[in-house]
Amino acid sequence: MNSTRNRRVKHTVVGALIAAAGLGLAVAPASADVLLSDNFNSYTSGNLMGQGPWVQVPTEPASTLPYDDVQVSGGAVVLTPGDGTTTAGQWVEAALTPAVKRTSADQSIYYAADISVTSAAAGDYFMSVRNSGTSKSYAAQLWAKADPADATGTKYLLGLSIASGGLVWGTDDLTLGQTYHIVAQYLLTGSANGSTDYANLYVDPADAATQANDTPYAATSSNTGKSSGLANLDLREGTQPLAPLVPISPTVTLDNLVVSTDFTSAAVTPEPASLALIGLAGAFLLSGRRRG
To answer: With bands split at pLDDT 50, 70 and 90, how would you rate the model's confidence at 228?
Structure first.
């Protein structure tokens, strides 16, 4: 009798813990198609390339300088541009599973991450999706630049482009060193629906359940240089031009990466408190089983 009652109490407590966690943690629908997910927590601090699915991008321009390797530090990725004198920036990528191929119907792909831009310059891109192999069909390229109208030197802007054109900058200032959750959408227009592809960028989307309720930070479109499909997520360190040219590339810390065909699973980031409650629920159940 006591054993049955204790099990009931345990399940009641666990249910309450999970319900409490649910207040701060939206769960992606079961039908969400997550193509890539990485929080970088299991990696050894040091070079990202060679850990998990990460490899060097085969289309990266050849360099006579050693690469300033993309780093993992404290469970996050740090993108630091090469200085152009002693080092060159490195490009790395991870494959999407499965790859998304253009068909007769419209298809959207979303990539999302928590980013903190710690320094910004004249403007360069640091993240994108692209096709497979040696194809240079980049899509939804995410850019950062210092806000030229900001006299404090603490503000920057994000931009979004499609392939080699259609770069559009947002107009709302973002603060250097502050973490934002970004979601970039790339719409592969179906062959039956026209020839223009579209891209949208969201910063800290307010409604993770309904994309239509969120206003894009930046939006662009293009009918040239489009990809036949998307197979990789790329992270890119730029290389600063030599003086007297001004620096162009940003320094970015990035975490909690998700690539999905579903907006909600990309837009939601689990809160640490929610994850802790779920972990507590699991530990509570496990302790009960051991006693039993």
So the answer is: confident
